[in-house]
Amino acid sequence: MGEIYQSLDPWLCHPDQEAEANVCLQDLDATFVTADGTATVVPHVTASDPPIDCFYVYTTASFDTGGNSDLEANEEEIFIALGNFLELAERQSAAWLAAQD
Question: In the chain, what are the domain boundaries?
Answer without folding.
Answer: 3-98
